[in-house]
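Quarterly update, task 2.4: flavin mononucleotide-bound model.
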Amino acid sequence: MTSLLTLHDYAAEASRRLSPPVWDFIEGGQGDERSLRANREAFERATVVPRVLTGTAEPETGTRILGADWAVPFAIAPTAFHAMVHPDGERATARGAAALPVPYVVSTMASVPFADIAAVAGGPLWLQLYAFADRGVTRHVIGQAEAAGMGALMLTVDAPRLARRLRDLRRDFRLPPGIRAVNLPDADLVSPGEHSRRAFAPALDWGELAWLRSVTELPLLVKGVAAAEDAALAVAHGVDGIVVSNHGGRQFSAAPATLDLLPAVVDRVAGAVPVLLDGGIRGGSDVLVALDRGADAVLVGRPVLHGLAVGGAGGVRGVLDLLAEELSEAMLMAGRPRVRPAPARSPVPSPA
Ligand SMILES: Cc1cc2nc3c(=O)[nH]c(=O)nc-3n(C[C@H](O)[C@H](O)[C@H](O)COP(=O)(O)O)c2cc1C
Ligand SMILES: CCCCCCC(=O)C(=O)O
């Protein structure tokens, strides 16, 4: 194996190990993939002005989000069907995350039961939630997450259905045999895109948040916010956190880079709730750039799958340890002794 000194090294090694259809499912974006590229380009042109003589020897990377201690200001983004990448699926991901530990946002479309993931997790475990047309299905998923002891719900709001991803369409991508969304009442689905058209709630509105509040007491974040106006509406509707995301460029190719959207969202939210960002984080300096522009923490998607492909739980741990080490070095070199404290849980009441 080539030496794995950067997250890009993990990606290159993963591309050699995964089948071309699975690799393309992971890497692809919507349409001409402009937003996928934009996420990276924004980080590639971003800089952080170093401060000097700050007396920093050992930066403190820890933070506190929604009442839980995080060893690092990053978490694993929700990604579906880890058993496509490694036979132990999300169990291996959770084991890899447990070492540091790194918080893990488990996808509704996990290929391993939530309870089994929770059994090996070592840090905060949240559920990413898709809202289904049949609210009974949504309730079923929430119930299993609660039973597994998950600490928060992250509602994905940028996916009325999975978008047209040309790489998948060209390959007529199907889930490999035996890969199932085991936490759904009807776990057998073959084509993710087709299933999403049939099962996802097609016309979500802000009312969904009030309904979710009526069925669970878990803190509620929304994932997929781009516009500052929507961030303000989310706060007004009483969310506990916001994730600035364009779904890793997988939903709408004209969506701006998330890093470019972040400052306006942070400005509008004005500390009412934590603001997280994902899309294009590929190194510790990227994490620091996002923090510098006002994010309280970030989520990391594809690199975790690359680690999983390279070495199961050990590969995930390798990716997360590397990111933590790079972040610590970036903070040291930039003269940032600690992560700015995130807002405490939102005091904003839900609108009637
Ligand atoms: C293979 C794959 C599967 C994904 N599955 C989900 C999912 O089930 N739910 C969700 O909200 N987002 C999903 N996402 C989007 C990620 O949560 C995240 O927004 C994105 O990957 C971040 O960008 P990055 O991969 O550049 O870090 C998925 C992304 C990938 C690459
Ligand atoms: C109906 C299956 C949905 C899989 C969702 C995965 C996802 O969000 C993605 O971006 O891919």
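Highlight for this quarter: The chain is about 40% helix and 10% strand.
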